[in-house]
Amino acid sequence: MEQKTKIKALDGQQELFITREFDLPIDLLFKAYVVPELVAEWMGTKVLKLDSKRHGSYQFETTDPKGNQHRFNGVIHEFEANKKITRTFEMENTLFPVQLEFLEFTPLSDERSRLTMQVIYKSVKDRDEHLKMPFALGINMAHDRIQEICNTLKQ
Amino acid sequence: MNLRRDVFQAIAEPTRRAILLLLASQSLTAGAIASNFDTARPTVSKHLQILNECELIRQEQQGREVIYHLNPIKMKEIADFLEPFRMMWEERFNRLENIMKNHK
């Protein structure tokens, strides 16, 4: 299977890069980050607030398999349509410090575009802990997906 | 899960990472490993003990000497720990691409 999403996390550094090329024109890729209904759909989260502009902010809420609700929020620092979004990301009620995200949108052709996310953490340890989260939750996530499909079939 | 956490703690230490790099090219005795570092020999022994407990290396008695080998299976587990994080984003971005293709 082709790996379209690439993660670069160099040893001992407090940042990581997530890169992905999309079969989408740049404006559609950017739109997926701006329109609340679209963000909710692909991120699989409830969008409580998304004010996509300089000095704007956002707040998301997800529900885990046990029914616990988790909220995430951040402030938007830079916002340039079809070019970049610079924002913070914070998990509410956790010990994880806030992180800084630089999103860069690059057109590759009329039909293709690239997203590069540079994420900067407070420390190397915080980055590594964050990277390990889905590693620890991996099995639960797979179960969650199966449960979801079963629930859909029952309706 | 505890053991796994120990593995990541083990590789978070620079000297231990350097030892793993050394052993990646060849198996060595404790003395040969220690000669690569300015650190006191008991300190190097302590690092070897931690790496051994985490199964990142294994020791083999050869006569009076103990030879240290890298454990490639355990090392691969570490290389793969990024994979669930990558998969999480891959799934999200696949959804993004599919949803937005319908908006063309």
Radius of gyration of chain B: 20 Å
CATH class term of the domain at 2-72 in chain B? Mainly Alpha
- Give the mean pLDDT of chain B: 84
**Helix/strand/pairing category of chain B:** alpha+beta
Which band does the percent of strand residues of chain A land in? 35-45%
Task: Give a short overview.
By secondary structure, chain A is of the alpha+beta class. Helix content of chain A is 31%, strand content 39%. In chain A, helix 1 (26-34) crosses helix 2 (36-43).
Could you explain the architecture of this structure?
The complex is a heterodimer of chains A (155) and B (104). Chain A is 31% helix and 39% strand. Chain A is α+β, with helices and mostly antiparallel strands and 155 residues long. Chain A has a single domain, classed as START domain (Alpha-D-Glucose-1,6-Bisphosphate, Chain A, domain 4). In chain A, strands 1-2-8-7-6-5-4-3 form an 8-stranded antiparallel sheet, covered by helices on one side. In chain A, strand 5 and strand 6 (84-91) form a beta hairpin. The longest helix of chain A is centred in the last third of the chain and has 31 residues, at 124-154. Chain A is globular and about 40 Å long. Chain B is of the alpha+beta class. Chain B has a domain at 2-72: Winged helix-like DNA-binding domain superfamily/Winged helix DNA-binding domain (Arc Repressor Mutant, subunit A). The A-B interface holds A 3-7, 9, 11-12, 18, 20, 22-25, 28-29, 31-32, 38, 41-44, 115, 124-125, 128, 131-138, 141 and B 1, 8, 12, 14, 17, 81-82, 84-90, 92-97, 99-101, 103-104.
Q: What structural keywords apply?
A:
heterodimer, A: 155 residues, alpha+beta, Alpha-D-Glucose-1,6-Bisphosphate, Chain A, domain 4, eight-stranded antiparallel β-sheet, 31% helix, B: 104 residues, three-stranded antiparallel β-sheet, 6 helices, 64% helix, 13% strand, elongated, disordered N terminus
